Amino acid sequence: MGYPRTMDARQNFLEDALGTLRRHKQLAEGAIAQLSDEQLAWAPDEDANSVAILVQHVAGNLRSRWSEYLASDGEKDDRQRDQEFLAQGWTREQQLARWEEGWSTLFQALEPLGPEDLTRSAPIRGKQHTVVEAVLRQLGHYAYHVGQIVQLARQLVGPDEWRTLSIAKGESSDYRPEGRI
Question: Which of 55, 65, 148, 136 lies closest to 97, judged by CA?
């Protein structure tokens, strides 16, 4: 991911996981920043999620999964998951504050870990997971919802106004190292 690699695959896993999680957060925030408040709350139909709903859900999941995750189940008793899928009437600032709180909870939980912690137990919904399993489970979950956020935002903003969050179509060759095909 652009930093010096160690000989310890476990340490590399931790650094790669944290880097990937940071990138997912950055992608979602880049998409959200391009939306008006009205677009943030828009959903394709009554059974679909708006970007605001997805933000609420991810924020709730982050807080629940990573608060005291080695000492208590990742599905906290005070979490109201079903409520995360209902419009709460929060302002953009309130939504983004909860989003930031959730991500901060995750990073505060994972950043202090060392390679020896990867086999520790992290229970989620009554099932024991290793820290590696818990990280991979949630990495997939967040990638899924970040993809939804980006896709919805891209469609709402439209092709003429959308600012790409990665390499734009037709520009891949600009990112190839010299001499590579």
Answer: 55
Rounded CA separation 67/83 (Å):
19
The per-residue pLDDT for range 100-151, each reduced to its tens digit, is 999 999 999 999 999 999 999 999 999 999 999 999 999 999 999 999 999 9
Cα distances (Å, whole numbers) of residue 134 to 45, 71, 98, 121, 145: 32, 14, 22, 9, 17
Banded pLDDT at 181 (limits 50, 70, 90): low
CB 150 within 8 A of CB 27: yes
**Domains of the chain, each with CATH number or no CATH:** 10-175 (1.20.120.450)
C-alpha separations of 129 from 76, 124, 132, 137, 154 in Å = 16, 7, 8, 9, 35
pLDDT tens digit sequence for 158-171:
999 999 998 888 88
Note the pTM of the prediction, 2 decimals.
0.90
Instruction: Estimate the crossing angle of helix 51-66 against helix 92-110, to 10 degrees.
Output: 30
CA distances from residue 59 to 79, 85, 112, 129, 141 in whole angstroms, order as listed: 11, 12, 21, 21, 12
